[in-house]
Design a protein that fits this description.
The complex is a heterodimer of chains A (about 130) and B (about 280). By secondary structure, chain A is mostly helical. Chain A has one domain. In chain A, about 75% of the residues lie in helices and about 0% in strands. The mean pLDDT of chain A is about 80. Chain B is mainly alpha-helical and about 280 residues long. Chain B contains eleven helices and two strands. A two-stranded antiparallel sheet of chain B has the order 1-2. In chain B, helix 5 packs antiparallel against helix 11. The mean pLDDT of chain B is about 85. The chains are: A mainly alpha (about 130), B mainly alpha (about 280). Chains A and B meet through helix 1, helix 2, helix 4 and helix 5 of A and helix 1, helix 3, helix 4, helix 9 and helix 10 of B.
């Protein structure tokens, strides 16, 4: 039986939130393990210091850069956390995709068009900024 | 402050922001940005990046719960999000063209008037049903939710849809132009213009804020303003807090939510007027 748009969206948003937070936590725990072994010390004081001197070196700002870091072994903990961040940032667009599927199943054409227009706007903005 | 204490403290603060955000239809940035910058010494760009994370995490945690309880309305949210996102895209392209200070003063005045009307409606549990709006009928902008406090189903239908959509477009315009969140404006547009129950307004706003925040999230990510070490405790705290908030709101009256919302409107009205007058940056 086809699920209602509301149910699909609720499930997608919940799963997206949980998956992203789980990835971020795996990365954070991994970072702490690295810190204990002295390989990759966490230095929150340095991270939160004023950024006027320039961008922090351990922040990924594009998907190609992130993908390159994930191909190394062992994976960079900050890269794993960043994947969690990206999943979270994409979750509203995925929620809209779930709504679109729901509206198509319900033969609700006006709302299917509205959902598709919003997805296009979000993905366009996201791709424009993250393409590298 | 040790790293563990920092992470735990940010997580607890974010949980508080998540609870309030889920009840009031806000992303929590209004609370989190001052907390992160003043108490934790986080620089403003990272605090703003954390705010975007907070908005989307609130939207995920709260909207999921609100949609299940029937308080958030997907069709209403998407219909209005179209107006907000259009406004935000136009606003972002007009940066440097439109004088921001004029808009800030106009919005400050509009918010002051909204605060006044909110005060007059403090004891109004459910809106008085008006005439059927043809747009509301055409686009199915209505619904029903079960109110645990009133112990009955509450049917509702949007009125003055065009005015609500214009208010949403303006909120998006301001959001795109000034780079600020607009959860409070969305709630006011639904509560005041469209005469929807307060809890439906805040819950639907929670669904919408994730979409509008996602539209500008790439900008923050690309600038390197979202640091994963700060984003993680914020996302964890907000997600847990917002989920708790969705449980809490079902046991609150619409009048209680409106009373909690009033200080936010007053704060925003004052800050907008002061920013417009160049007295607050």
């Amino acid at each position: 039986m086809a699920l209602r748009a509301e149910t699909l969206v609720a499930r997608l948003l919940f799963v997206g939130g949980v998956v992203s937070v789980a990835l971020m936590l795996v990365g954070l725990v991994s970072l702490q393990v690295h810190a204990v072994s002295g390989r990759h010390p966490v230095d929150v004081a340095r991270i939160i210091e004023n950024r006027q001197a320039g961008r922090a070196v351990d922040v990924f700002v594009s998907l190609p850069q992130l993908m390159r870091a994930l191909h190394r072994w062992p994976p960079d903990p900050t890269a794993i956390m960043t994947v969690g961040v990206v999943v979270l940032l994409l979750t509203p667009a995925l929620g809209l995709a779930a709504a679109l599927v729901g509206f198509v199943q319900e033969h609700d054409r006006p709302y299917a068009i509205i959902a598709a227009a919003l997805i296009a706007a979000l993905l366009f903005g996201f791709a424009l900024r993250l393409g590298g | 402050m040790s790293d563990v204490v920092f992470l735990a403290s940010v997580c607890v603060s974010a949980a508080g922001a998540g609870v309030l955000g889920a009840i009031l239809g806000l992303g929590g940035g209004i609370l989190l940005v001052p907390i992160l910058t003043v108490f934790f010494g986080v620089s403003l760009p990272y605090a703003m990046g954390a705010s975007i994370i907070s908005v989307i995490a609130t939207s995920c945690g709260a909207a999921a719960g609100h949609l299940r309880s029937g308080l958030a309305n997907v069709r209403l949210g998407l219909f209005l999000a179209l107006a907000t996102v259009s406004g935000a895209l136009i606003g972002a392209s007009l940066v440097g063209v439109l004088p921001a200070s004029v808009l800030e003063i106009l919005f400050g005045l509009a918010l002051s008037y909204s605060a006044f009307t909110t005060m007059r409606q403090l004891k109004l549990e459910l809106p008085v049903e008006g005439e059927a709006d043809p747009w509301a009928v055409r686009f199915g902008l209505s619904g029903t939710y079960y109110d645990r406090v009133l112990r009955r189903d509450v049917p509702y239908r949007a009125t003055r849809v065009k005015a609500g959509a214009v208010a949403m477009f303006s909120a998006g315009l301001l959001s795109g132009l000034l780079g600020i969140g607009s959860g409070a404006f969305k709630v006011l547009a639904m509560d005041y213009f469209m005469r929807l129950p307060m809890k439906v307004s805040t819950a639907t706003s929670n669904f919408m804020i994730g979409i509008t925040a996602a539209a500008s999230a790439g900008v923050y990510f690309g600038r390197g303003d979202i640091h994963p070490v700060i984003a993680t405790p914020v996302a964890v705290g907000v997600l847990l807090g917002s989920y708790a908030g969705t449980r809490l709101i079902t046991s609150l009256r619409n009048t209680t939510v409106r009373k909690l919302f009033l200080p936010v409107v007053l704060y925003l009205a004052l800050s907008m007027l002061l920013r417009g007058a160049g007295l607050w940056r």
